Structure prediction request, 304 residues.
Amino acid sequence: MTLRIIPSGATLGARIENLDLSQPLPDDVFEQLLQALGRHGVLSYPKQELTAAQLRAFSARFGRLEVNVAGAYQESGLPEVMVLSNIVENGKPIGLSDAGQDWHTDMSYSHMIAFTNVLYGMKIPHRDGQPLGNTEFCNMHAACDGLPEEWKQRLDGMTVLHDFDKFWEMMRRERGSTRPPLTPAQRAARPPVSHPLFLRHPITGRRVLYANPGYAVRINEMDERESDEALEFLFAHQTQPAYRYAHRWQVGDVLMWDNMGTIHNAIPDYRPDEPRLIKRCQVMATRFFHDDGTPREAAEALGA
Ligand code: SIN
Prediction:
């Protein structure tokens, strides 16, 4: 079967229209999706009708699924499916509210980094006929290519420290946040980890800029002041409008993105009385990396 892949025409994004994700994927279709995800960074599949178990089964084709620590917001009986929502029922939130996260890449603070997030839109707020709560992306292949030559040379071979606590503290500063600071035990369970600043993307074979404002705290090979200045430059560079793409949600959309080739930001432009409900699976990059972080052979990783 040949997929109908319709590029958005922007720097990222393509729509796939002739696929029912509730059904098991034949190997040749899966291979086309993998290539399309590397090439376009963000894929959407409109008009899907999925159970949480079908969302999990589709996501699990791409790699090991992460079980999120926010246990209260897991789908009942399916811990790999997380509920994102601003809906409150009987005084209790039914899902994790992710508004106000700002630009980041999921799980960059982990030794095993994230490959793709798979989200299923079940309730999408609209106002004046326009969808709210867009998910925005920036293209890290383009950001890498677009770095001035002197910066490419200066940063070549360097590594970045990613810290979960940076993001946690940023979310704590959000209006209305009730998050306590991480305890010493929670901090110890998620120590900062380092990754190369430039990654060779396992699908495209091209270099991507692997740093993000949410978690990156230090360029290890620089002193603190030099590192702060370089990160400030990189964050401004990677989020510039030329690299941006926004997904405008409709109910029934499945949206997936490549966390190595993009960074993302959920726009918090809807009110508490404008319900949003998304189910989400987080797929780790286990098809590309061994547990110790070394890359798998290309043929093994791509299933060739
Ligand atoms: C996410 O960061 O996984 C969620 C993005 C969204 O809710 O739009």
Observations:
- DSSP finds eight helices and 20 strands in the chain.
- Residues 36 and 43 are 8 Å apart (CA to CA).
- Helices lie at 27-40, 52-60, 140-145, 149-155, 164-172, 184-189, 224-238, 298-301.
